[in-house]
């Protein structure tokens, strides 16, 4: 029976659904200094992304940042600065961290009159420029020591029911990791094991992704339901309005309604590397929120059955959660995803398709071949 569902998980990096937004595939990250609750950006970001003049004085340990109409001179470790040649006191002086000079973005935005916005739920700085909007991921110093991949097996209690979950946490801020979608045998309309898809992609992690025609006697066996984008190629155009997650070329990822993603892809085709629809949505902005009927789901195997489940989630600190469980309903899965820290999450194809591969072997065994997968390469 065909399943007309969708939820989009797409490529790997950061972009927002507004046509005027511009994004860049750089390795720049801001960082949060918790002691003063201030966000810093790399000095090179100021020159290369914002286009300001930057002059570094190694003797003074100072930096002069200039635009056609404004200037500010900052000193590493000092709380005084020259803004348009006026002496001011700042609460967040420039700092050196891991050999990189970081400068406080707020005082620069005030001096240069550039609007900035802090997005708490995704730890992003949005900077509005004459050319559009830039988005910078912000991390705290704990990023330097956290693992790039982490697998846990744990028993959780949901509604007095004990369930075991296999969870792989992927650090989306790690520049050595790449998350993408992949076709079975590198071709739409074919099927293969999750393990073989991982091996074809030299992937460390893989999880089954979209719904597809699993009827082996069907002429459309292996064809996915909903939309799939692989390596930037929009190979399937079955757009619906179910929950969506995408991964972009700028290390962003978001779970969205299909209509919003459709609009974004139409205006920014070159920014989306991977996408795949599944669904329904499980968690929205930290709150369990499922509306499968509203997203077009009617199959009781999806809505109410206890079954093997696969899910994907995003955390506030930019981790991707790949999850496989057994004997759970959709509602129980939503609560589980919230328990393990997902602020946004969605369901993937489940039942016999549910499979999670990690470092050379299955940690959750699928019962059938699948059409496509989400993979993590190193």
TrEMBL record:
Gene3D superfamilies linked: Copper amine oxidase-like, N-terminal domain
Signal sequence annotation: 1-25
Keyword set, alphabetical order: Signal
UniProt keyword annotation of Electron transport present: no
Coiled coil: none
InterPro entries xrefs: Cu_amine_oxidase-like_N, Mao_N_sf, NAGPA
Domain Phosphodiester glycosidase: 202-377
Domain Copper amine oxidase-like N-terminal stretches: 37-127
Claim: Ubl conjugation is one of the keywords in the record: no
Name of protein: Copper amine oxidase
The organism of origin for this protein: Mangrovibacillus cuniculi
């Amino acid at each position: 029976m065909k399943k007309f569902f969708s939820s989009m998980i797409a490529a790997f990096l950061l972009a927002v659904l507004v046509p005027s937004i511009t994004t860049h595939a750089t390795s720049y990250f801001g960082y949060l200094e918790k002691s003063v609750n201030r966000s810093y950006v790399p000095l090179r970001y100021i020159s290369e992304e914002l286009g300001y003049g930057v002059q570094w004085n190694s003797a003074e340990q100072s930096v002069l940042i200039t635009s056609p109409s404004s200037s500010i001179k900052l000193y590493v470790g000092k709380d005084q600065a020259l803004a348009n040649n006026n002496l001011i006191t700042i609460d967040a002086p420039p700092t050196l961290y891991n050999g990189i000079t970081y400068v406080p973005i707020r005082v620069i935005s005030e001096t240069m009159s550039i609007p900035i916005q802090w997005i708490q739920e995704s730890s992003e700085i949005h900077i509005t420029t004459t050319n559009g909007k830039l988005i910078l991921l912000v991390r705290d110093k704990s990023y330097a020591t956290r693992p790039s991949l982490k697998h846990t097996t744990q028993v959780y209690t949901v509604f007095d029911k004990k369930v075991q979950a296999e969870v792989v946490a992927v650090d989306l801020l790690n520049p050595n990791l790449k998350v993408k979608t992949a076709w079975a045998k590198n071709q739409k309309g074919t099927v293969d094991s999750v393990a073989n898809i991982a091996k074809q992609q030299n992937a460390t992690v893989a999880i089954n992704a979209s719904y597809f025609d699993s009827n082996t006697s069907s002429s459309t066996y292996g064809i996915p339901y909903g939309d799939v984008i692989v390596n930037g190629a929009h190979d399937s155009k079955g757009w619906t309005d179910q929950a969506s997650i995408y991964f972009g070329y700028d290390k962003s990822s978001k779970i969205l309604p299909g209509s919003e993603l459709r609009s974004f892809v139409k205006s920014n085709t070159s920014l989306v590397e991977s996408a795949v629809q599944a669904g329904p949505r499980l968690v929205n902005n930290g709150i369990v929120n499922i509306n499968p009927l509203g997203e077009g789901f009617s199959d009781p195997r999806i809505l109410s059955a206890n079954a093997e489940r696969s899910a994907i989630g995003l955390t506030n600190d930019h981790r991707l959660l790949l999850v496989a469980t057994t004997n759970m309903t959709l509602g129980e899965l939503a609560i589980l995803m919230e328990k393990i820290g997902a602020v946004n999450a969605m369901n993937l194809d489940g039942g016999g398709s549910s499979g999670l591969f990690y470092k050379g072997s299955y940690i959750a065994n699928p019962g059938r071949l699948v059409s496509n997968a989400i993979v993590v390469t190193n």
